[in-house]
Each structure stands twice: as structure tokens, then as C-alpha cells.
Specification:
The structure holds 2 protein chains of 2 kinds. Chain A is an alpha/beta fold. The mean pLDDT of chain A is 83. Chain B has one domain. The two termini of chain B are 26 Å apart. The model of chain B has no long low-confidence stretch (mean pLDDT 87). Classes of the chains: A alpha/beta, B mainly alpha. At the A-B interface, helix 2, strand 6 and helix 3 of A face helix 1 and helix 6 of B.
């Protein structure tokens, strides 16, 4: 079955004592794809991941991993998943290689293959130096990589990692990022993170969750377009701004002046323009402004980061929520 | 069940590398040694009817009350407090295997500690050079009793550990349950208000479950299958509740 998506989740609901942690989440992850989970604290990311691994049962809804239903065949699913939980719990009093050996045996790797495989993951995660150290005495970065090594140990088709880069320094983040990128195409990876540029670089697709609902999903570029819906230009311009809107409309009808700063000593002031057009307007703007007698010192197109998308998407869902509340109150 | 031995050997290994195991073992042997020398001193003063082994095993309840909670309080509570239960249960192992692995390791340590007290009798035998002090029947019966009742006591400790994520709570809970099982049945069996006609079925039940009298039977060489059944069924029940306890905590975590 080469075409079965790695993970299909349909209408997942999880309630804790009447409070919905996850309400009606549906998504699919294709084989070999790297999916990023984004969401503010308490959005239901960890709960969703735990349901995917079969650790927690969902209140309702269905998940299948590689075509196997999590609810009816949890054992089968657990063989296909490598999971690193939030905060990466590890036994304090074991050595790194002992721990990996123990986990490998639990994950049913044959004894003969386990030794070479442990060497391989130690190499991959840059853990060779600490293989005989006791886990409780390792620094946060090493512990985190032990968790990652453990998740990829059995070469499962699906890897789920809850905040794998938390507490790492930039150099280690780079290593982890390369590591995850090296899994692309071979394994399906789901990661959650607070570090948005991290997700943007690593992930093929992003799922933004807020208050137990999916508020947006797609590639980072799609999300930018969909959520923000406009491009922004920043200019430094000198001249009379009163006639500027007319010039802008002649370039592109949706182009508007949204912000303007105070002029500096040379008379240049920073100006922000937004438009609904996606394609590049820079050259047209330069020409039109020059022709209208404006002096221009700089022009750049702002690239909205995933951070902006994330903030916009989660804010939007809060707005929807508060509207719902108002309606409910009106009734 | 194919992961049971992986888990069991892991648990045993963790016990063997942990210094606390050796400290507990040393204190246990020190304490039992004091009891044993006390008994020998009594025997050197005056002749007794019963063998030293018999008297020695009369004190079995004391180490049970303190050692069993100490041995078992950590097993599941610690795993949950650290969150390692999550990584453990997301591998293809079942809750049953995890609980049985922990139980097996704790039981083996318990039995090993008691087996070490066999050294006292060996030393006595070597120095006295006379077999009449070592009455083999009560000795074997006593150790058999410890091994069989240990099944149940350790299972109770594991159950207590499965109910909480706090080791201290688990320890106190195990202690109280064991006091109820050992002391409580003894107290009820000797209390007079159960002597009334109406209460006679209850009285029978309590007498049947009286741990202290089981010990007497075992050291006298009477191995009653009903008593074996009492401990084995108690063990199975406690373990089933432990497994359910772990799973219930997952559902509501």
C-alpha cells in the first residue's frame, strides 16, 4: 500500500473531566512528510500526539497509522512509531548505551542488529563521547539528543517528537534540524515546537492548533498567503505624502498606505504599504514614485514570518471564539 | 509476554546497580542478626521446647512491615512521577508486562534478602557442630512460609505504588495495608465480639485469613493448600488491581 497516508486522524475529540482538550481535529500526513505542530500552550498539541501514539485513548474519533487503527491494534501501531514525549523523561541512573540497548530490546530489534544500530544512532546524534556516561549527569542538550536517538532507534516509519529542540543551543538546534531533515522522505515526522523559525525551516507542512481546534494548515508559504492575505512593502521616501495615495492607486488599485513615520533630518520618512497582490510590485513602484517626483532611499518587500502567521491565526480563532460566546449570551 | 524477561532483567539490573539496595540489605541483615543473637542468648540460658528457627520466624512480621513498603514503593510511583511510564508504554509492551516485571524484581530481591538470613543458621551449625539445634523441618517450613506469603505482601506493595505518584504515600499506604492484613486479622481473630453465634461465618473467614497462624502451621511442617490458595489468590487479585490502577491513571491523566 504505497499510497496509504502515514497518519489519518478524523474528528479526534479528547475531554478531561468535561473540559475539551482536543475538539474535532482532523488531518492527514503523507508518507515521508515532515509535519509541524504549532499552537500556544494548552492548545492540545501534546494531547493530540499522545493519542496518535496510542498512549491516551481518544474520547471519540479515529486515528490510523500506516493504515492500522490505533484504537483496535495499539500494539501494532506502537511498533510503527518512535515517540519522544514532552520534557523528554529519561531514567536518571542508566548509562546512555545501556538505555538504548534496553529500549531497543523493548522495541523488538533483534540482538544481532542492535549493537551496530546503537553505534549508528550514537553517531547520527553526536553522542559517541557520552555513550558510557550516566544519563542523570548529562547536560540538557545531550539528554535531548538521547531522547531523539531513542525515538529513531528502531527505524520506525513514523516519528513523533514533542518539542525536540527545547533547551538546545543554536549549534545543537542546527544538528537536530539536519537530523530531522535527513529523515525526510524515509520517515514521516511530526514535531511540535514553540520555535517558529525552526518549524519553518524543517517542516513541509504546518498545522496550527488553538484551543483544541485546527485553525490553519498548509505549507508555510500557503499559510502566509491565506492567513495574512496581503504583502507588505517598506520604503523610505521624501516628498509630499498627500498625493501619494493617487500614485499608489495608479500602480495597483489595492495598494494602500498603512503606516508612516516622522521625517528624519534629510526629509526621508519610513512608510509601510500593503497590497493584496502576491507578485512583486517593487519595480513598478520605483518607476511610479520616481516619475511623480518622490525621492526614494530604500524599498523592500517585507517577508512575514511564520510568527506573524501564527499570531494572526491564533488571534483569529480567539475572535471566532469570543463571537461564539457573544452569540451564546445573546440567546 | 515476550517482553517480560527484558523488563525483569532490566529491573534486576537497576536494583543491583543501586546503592540503596545494598544499604537496605545490610540494615535488614543487621536487624535480623540482632534478633537471632538475642534468641541464641535466651537459649544459652535455659533449655526450650521449640527450636530456634521457630522463634526466629515468629518475628517475620517486623521486617515485612518495613522492608516490603521500602522495596515496592518506588516501582510504579517513581516511573509515573518521572514520566518514563509514557516512553515505556509507547513501546510494544503491555501494562501487564510492566507490572509483572516490577513485581518479579521486587519479589526476587525480597526472597534473596530472606535467603541471606540462612547464613545465620549455617554459622550456628558450623560452630555448634551439633544438628539438634538446627531443626530442619521448622527451618524449611519457615522459609517456605516467607516465600509464599512474600508473593502476596509484595503484590500489595506494588498495588500501593500503582495508586499514587508519590513514593512516600505509596510507602505509607503499603505499610497500612500490611498492618491490616497481618495485625488486623490477628486482632479480629482474638477479639471476643466475633464469638457470638451470628458472627460465626465471619469468625471462620477471619481465622482462615489469619497470617500469624499460617506461619505457625508452616513451621510445624503443615503445608495446607487452602493457605497456599489464600496467598496465591490474594497475589493475583492485588496484581490485577495494580494493572487496572496503572491503566485507570492513564485514562484520567
Amino acid at each position: 500500500m504505497p499510497d496509504t497516508p502515514a497518519i489519518i486522524a478524523t474528528h479526534l475529540v479528547k475531554t478531561y473531566a468535561g473540559v475539551a482538550a482536543v475538539s474535532d481535529i482532523s488531518f492527514t500526513v503523507e508518507k515521508g512528510e515532515i509535519l509541524g505542530f504549532l499552537g500556544p500552550n494548552g492548545a492540545g498539541k501534546s494531547t493530540t500526539m499522545r493519542i496518535l501514539t496510542g498512549y491516551l485513548p481518544a474520547t471519540s474519533g479515529n486515528v490510523s497509522v500506516c493504515g492500522v487503527s490505533v484504537a483496535s491494534h495499539p500494539e501494532e501501531v506502537k511498533r510503527r512509531i518512535g515517540y519522544m514525549p514532552e520534557n523528554n523523561p529519561l531514567p536518571e541512573d542508566m548509562r546512555v548505551s545501556e538505555y538504548l540497548y534496553f529500549r531497543g530490546r523493548l522495541k523488538e530489534i533483534p540482538r544481532r542488529k542492535l549493537g551496530p544500530r546503537i553505534d549508528e544512532v550514537l553517531e547520527l546524534c553526536d553522542l559517541k563521547r557520552v555513550r558510557h556516561k550516566i544519563i542523570g549527569k548529562l547536560s540538557k542538550g545531550f539528554r535531548q539528543r538521547v531522547g531523539i536517538a531513542e525515538a529513531i532507534l528502531a527505524e520506525p516509519p513514523v516519528i513523533i517528537m514533542d518539542e525536540p529542540t527545547i533547551g538546545l543551543d543554536p549549534h545543537q538546534i542546527l544538528i537536530v534540524r539536519d537530523l530531522i531533515a535527513s529523515l525526510r522522505g524515509r520517515m514521516t515526522v511530526i514535531i511540535s515546537s514553540h520555535i517558529l523559525p525552526e518549524i519553518e525551516v524543517t517542516c513541509d507542512r504546518v498545522l496550527i492548533i488553538n484551543q483544541g481546534r485546527v485553525v490553519a494548515q498548509g505549507t508555510p508559504a500557503d499559510l502566509r498567503r491565506e492567513i495574512l492575505g496581503h504583502s507588505t512593502y517598506q520604503l523610505e521616501v521624501a516628498g509630499d505624502l498627500a498625493t501619494l495615495p493617487v500614485v499608489l492607486t495608479s500602480v495597483e488599485p489595492t495598494l494602500r498606505l498603512t503606516e508612516q513615520g516622522e521625517p528624519d533630518a534629510a526629509g526621508f520618512r519610513p512608510v509601510t504599504l500593503t497590497t493584496e497582490r502576491d507578485d512583486e510590485l517593487g519595480e513598478a513602484l520605483l518607476r511610479a514614485l520616481g516619475a511623480a517626483g518622490y525621492r526614494l532611499r530604500s524599498l523592500s518587500r517585507a517577508h512575514p514570518t511564520l510568527e506573524d502567521v501564527f499570531l494572526a491565526a491564533t488571534r483569529r480563532s480567539w475572535d471566532v471564539k469570543s463571537e461564539d460566546l457573544r452569540k451564546a449570551e445573546a440567546r | 509476554m515476550k517482553h517480560f524477561f527484558t523488563l525483569l532483567s532490566h529491573e534486576i539490573r537497576m536494583l543491583l546497580v543501586s546503592p540503596s539496595t545494598y544499604i537496605a540489605a545490610m540494615l535488614f541483615l543487621l536487624f535480623m542478626g540482632f534478633i537471632f543473637t538475642g534468641i541464641l542468648e535466651d537459649y544459652s540460658k535455659a533449655a526450650r521446647e521449640v527450636s530456634p528457627a521457630n522463634v526466629f520466624f515468629q518475628f517475620f512480621w517486623f521486617p515485612v512491615l518495613f522492608m516490603v513498603p521500602l522495596l515496592t514503593m518506588k516501582c510504579l510511583a517513581e516511573e509515573r512521577r518521572l514520566g518514563t511510564i509514557e516512553t515505556l508504554l509507547t513501546t510494544p509492551v503491555t501494562t501487564t508486562e510492566v507490572v509483572l516485571g516490577k513485581y518479579g524484581a521486587a519479589y526476587l530481591l525480597y526472597v534473596a534478602l530472606w535467603a541471606a538470613t540462612g547464613g545465620f543458621f549455617y554459622i550456628l551449625y558450623k560452630f555448634v557442630g551439633d544438628a539438634h539445634f538446627i531443626d530442619f523441618g521448622p527451618l524449611a517450613g519457615g522459609y517456605l512460609f516467607v516465600a509464599v506469603s512474600g508473593l502476596f505482601f509484595i503484590a500489595v506493595g506494588v498495588l500501593a505504588s500503582s495508586l499514587t505518584r508519590n513514593q512516600a504515600v505509596a510507602g505509607v499506604l503499603a505499610f497500612v495495608l500490611l498492618v491490616l492484613i497481618i495485625g488486623g486479622t490477628n486482632y479480629l481473630a482474638t477479639s471476643t465480639w466475633l464469638d457470638r453465634e451470628v458472627m460465626s461465618p465471619l469468625k471462620d473467614a477471619v481465622t482462615y485469613a489469619q497470617v500469624i497462624s499460617h506461619r505457625d502451621d508452616f513451621t510445624r511442617g503443615v503445608v495446607d493448600t487452602r493457605q497456599l490458595l489464600f496467598y496465591v489468590s490474594g497475589t493475583i487479585l492485588a496484581l490485577i488491581f495494580s494493572i487496572l490502577g496503572v491503566e485507570a491513571k492513564l485514562l484520567h491523566s
